[in-house]
Amino acid sequence: NAGVTQTPKFRVLKTGQSMTLLCAQDMNHEYMYWYRQDPGMGLRLIHYSVGEGTTAKGEVPDGYNVSRLKKQNFLLGLESAAPSQTSVYFCASSSPETVSQETQYFGPGTRLLVL
Amino acid sequence: AQSVTQLGSHVSVSEGALVLLRCNYSSSVPPYLFWYVQYPNQGLQLLLKYTSAATLVKGINGFEAEFKKSETSFHLTKPSAHMSDAAEYFCAVSEGRGNDYKLSFGAGTTVTVRA
Predict the structure, then answer these.
(1) pLDDT band at B95 (very low <50, low <70, confident <90, very high)
(2) pLDDT 10s digits, A69-87
(3) Least Cα separation, residue A103 to chain B (angstroms)
(4) What is the spatial distance between Cα B83 and Cα B66, in angstroms, rounded to a whole number?
(5) I want to staple B59 with a disulfide (CB 3.0 to 4.6 A). Which of A51, A56, B47, B106 is the partner?
(6) Quick check: A101 and B43 CB within 8 A?
(7) Strands, E, within chain B: which ranges?
(8) pLDDT score of B64 more than 70
């Protein structure tokens, strides 16, 4: 099993450009999450999904959109990138069998630089 | 509402010395608590978790943590540091209400190990 994979690993954008980050998991997990990691702030939840076709806002959703058209994929979109969105983005997934106790499995991250 | 405070953004220890990373939480309900580790340029992986069973939890790589309700703490320890323990460590809390499962992360503690 590959676990959680993220594409791309690194990207440089100019202000105003758009892009989509792809997360894929092969563990048949129901739940998927997008976080951003900034120095001194830990991980902050952007959006999450509790199943195919459903999404919900996290702590810092502004400027991002997400889609979960297939159970194994969770896409994070930036419609008009801003320098404040320079960050490392992590995707994670988990199984809701015992929801609150379940381990989240993380991808390797995508480093995004917005100039 | 829940939050996590990690005391000390950076800890430096000698190889073979005790590693102690402090985590305090606030939660309106009995929490579930996690420690994750992030090695350089990688995603997060679970070290251990507390899910209301034994208050002393043993994890991977010789780490353990003790849940102390009276102190609202979940400190992480390892008796003897190894060079491979150099990483960033995150404490996280979940309140686990129904399907609204979200983790709140602390800001992280970076551990360096001196030879």
Answers:
(1) low
(2) 999 999 999 999 999 999 9
(3) 7
(4) 23
(5) B47
(6) no
(7) 3-7, 10-14, 19-26, 32-38, 44-50, 56-58, 64-68, 73-78, 87-94, 103-105, 109-114
(8) yes
